[in-house]
Structure formats: structure tokens, C-alpha cells
Known about the structure:
The protein is an alpha/beta fold. The protein has ten helices and ten strands.
Amino acid sequence: MQEKKPHIVVRDLTMAYGDFVLQRDLTFTINHGDIFIIMGGSGCGKSTLLKHLIGLKRPAKGEVLYGDVNFWTAPPEQQEAIIKGIGVLYQSGALWSSMTLAENIALPLEQYTELSSMQIRELVSLKLALVGLKGFEEYYPSEISGGMKKRAGLARAMALDPEILFFDEPSAGLDPISARLLDDLILQLRDSLGATIVIVTHELPSIFAIGNNSVFIDADRKTMIASGDPKVLLKESQDPTVVNFLTRMEAGRRGHVDADKDNRRGTP
């Protein structure tokens, strides 16, 4: 098996708001081609960690390395080059409501490239086709479904052909079928584009269906308590917090079954 090459390395990272420490001592590696999951309970700092990785919030301590470059000590021109190599899909899709889908996706191409208008139109159509939205160029965000908005946001995140894609709760607000279709699309894009994908999520079906590497951060202990393939963590972790998080769906099913049994027995 070919050894994986690190794409992003996080070392001894501390996240804080003033004197309040959210997480400390975070150290993990995201490899080229990973679908890397940032997971943990509500309020643990998953989205804040994402902001540290994409250059929106400076860490209180520690390093975020892209290759051998520490983003937070690199000169501005090097930081800008790194940022141009990433794409971000935010929770809501973050599309401009006053722009058509084509105009939304064209925006980064107009700002950061010297392509002609015709070339941009062709690329926009290609990106929309990649996410299953061919023919929707002239639609406005208000005219499409939530799942389509997520896919349109993904098309915009891919506009500049980034090496790394970051997703913040991509399945939030989607029905199970739409969420599964989005998971399938993420796998297809990883395989066809060779991109590294980093996803903040607490959705177990997505975690197990697409994730091959992860970090688990805990709000109570204010640090990471597990890392690695989520499926391996499910089988091998001895930490009760990790086990409870990764088995909560099955526990919920058992609870429903027990409740049904009690109801049939007439238990009050």
C-alpha cells in the first residue's frame, strides 16, 4: 500500500476566545486524498477549528502546516496562495440571494482569474454539471431546494479547482435521501478530482459512509480524545465518550424498540 503524504498538519493547537480556552493540545494529520471528519458533541468547537484551518481565526498557540509552510507565520502572499488552493462550503450554502447560480459560481473566477467571459461561462456550466445542476444556471437560490443549494454551494467551492475542500455541516437541514446523495457526490468528487476533503459533521451515516480519517474533540476535556478511521474507532475505542457518540444511533433504535415493547405490554 502506498504511504499517504501529509497535506495539512496541526501541531499543539490551542483555540481560545480571550482567556476562555475552547480546545488545547490538538495534534493531527490530514493526508492527501483523505475525507477527514472533524467530529464531537455540540459546542466542542468543530466549526471554530475549521476557521483556524482556513485562515479565518488565528490560534492562541500552535501551528497549521500546509505542506512544510506554517500558515500563521507565512508572509501574506504565501497565505493568499494557500487560500486560493482551498474551497469552502458553508452550512447554508452562503449563496448570494440576488445572484443567479451562474453568477454565484462565476464570482471567484471573475475576482481571481483573467479568464474571458466566455471561458467563465463554460467553466460555470461545467461545475454545475459536476454537481448535477446542469441547466440551472439562471435560477436564483430562492427557486431551488435545500439540497440543490448545497450542491450549488459546492460548485462554487470548486470554482478555482482547489486542492482541498472544507465543508461545514454539509448535511444539516437535509432529508436522509438528499444527505445520502450529497455523500455520494462528495465521494465522486474526491475520486475524480483527487481533492482532500475536510468535513465538520455530527451525522453518523455520513461519518461512516465517507470518512476514512478523523479527529474527535471533546467539550468537557477541552482537547482531542481520539483520531483515526471512524470505523476503526467504532470497533476499537475504549473511551466512553467516543463509544457513546459513535453508537448513539443504535442506542436510539434500541430505545424505540423497548418503548414499543412497553406500549404493547401496557406499561405506563
